[in-house]
Design goal:
The protein is of the alpha/beta class and 325 residues long. It has a domain of 205 residues: 3-Layer(aba) Sandwich (Rossmann fold). The chain has ten helices and 16 strands. β1, α1 and β2 form a beta-alpha-beta unit. The longest helix has 23 residues.
């Protein structure tokens, strides 16, 4: 199922060693199981003979005896049922792309990530038998807008709202790592799938021949196909050498202009239109500036060093696959 290699590399700061794999079926606790990535991950892991147990937010009325509930906003979690988990995957968090970033919305985005991670990490750290690994979501927003500069896991964090949230998000896993749990922070880029995310939003326009670059088109887009993302998560679960932050992106990021032309080519549609940067700032404010007009050129150095092999390393190949072209 996974794409593993025993080749080693010497052009990276990470020690070149043979991957330590554990492919036995796991009992996996998953937060964010109903989200865009969580639904696909559940199907993928279940097909691989792993047992996936979702966590639900308790409503206090129709709770099921065998379910696991929590409420990060209230600081409550059913800790007793966390015992016996081999793996915990934490994907829960409010969307960053649903409308303008008012101060209220930014508070919701931050609290949904930080508070839930603190609650879960503390609960895991107090278990008699903690899980082997906590795989916790993060984002390439950690680096901010970095222009053409090549970014790896060694790069410094950026400044602004998204980098600040991402740093606090990752720091919130400290109770788990301090308790001896192996923690992996997934700094995920744009996930390509017609079922959700950025690609789903822009596909209707591109299919009508109305697609085009955003702003100058020079901002980098660090992306990954859904299939490769799922295999990166599996790799993080089964490879004991994967630890700390890992960039979950293709090794070949592209500019927005290149992304636009490639998607148009795959769909056999023109891409003559463009959206001025001023219009994006006017419509979306800070969110438009950071998410649409900003970008970073991210390379997944850590997992490449450990031998992970991408199925869809190039954008055209990835788009043809996800769009069944």
């Amino acid at each position: 199922m996974g794409k593993f290699s025993t080749r080693t590399r010497t052009d990276s700061p990470i020690e070149s060693v043979q991957p330590t794999l554990n492919n036995q079926p796991k009992k996996i606790l998953l937060t964010g199981s109903t989200g865009f990535i969580g639904t696909q991950l559940t199907s993928f892991l279940t097909a691989g003979r792993h047992t996936v147990i979702p966590m639900f937010r308790s409503n206090g009325k129709d709770d099921k005896e065998d379910a696991i509930y929590w409420n990060p906003a209230e600081g409550t979690i059913d800790s007793s049922k966390l015992e016996g988990m081999d793996v915990v995957i934490h994907l829960s968090g409010a969307s960053i792309a649903n409308g303008r970033w008012s101060e209220e919305r930014k508070g919701i985005i931050s609290r949904s990530r930080v508070d839930s991670t603190v609650l879960l990490s503390h609960a895991l750290s107090k278990l008699r038998k903690p899980p082997e690994v906590l795989v916790s979501a993060s984002a390439t927003g950690y680096y901010g807008d970095t222009g053409k500069k090549i970014i790896t896991e060694r790069s410094a964090p950026g400044s602004g709202f998204l980098p600040t949230v991402s740093q606090e998000w990752e720091r919130s896993t400290k109770p788990a790592s301090n308790a001896g749990i192996r923690v992996v922070n997934l700094r995920t880029g744009l996930v390509l799938s017609p079922l959700g995310g950025f690609l789903k939003q822009i596909l209707p326009l591109f299919r009508l021949g109305l697609g085009g670059k955003l702003g100058s088109g020079k901002q980098y887009m660090s992306w990954i196909s859904m299939d490769d993302l799922l295999h990166v998560v599996l790799f993080a679960i089964t490879n004991k050498l994967v630890k700390g932050p890992i960039n979950v992106t293709s090794p070949k990021p592209v500019t927005n202009e290149k992304f636009t032309k490639t998607l148009g080519h795959v769909l056999s549609r023109p891409t003559l239109f463009s959206v001025p940067a001023s219009a994006i700032r006017l419509l979306f404010g800070e969110m438009g500036k950071d998410l649409v007009l900003g970008g970073c050129r991210v390379i997944p150095e850590n997992i490449l060093t450990l031998g992970f092999k991408f199925s869809h390393p190039t954008l055209e190949r990835a788009l043809k696959h996800v769009l069944e072209k």
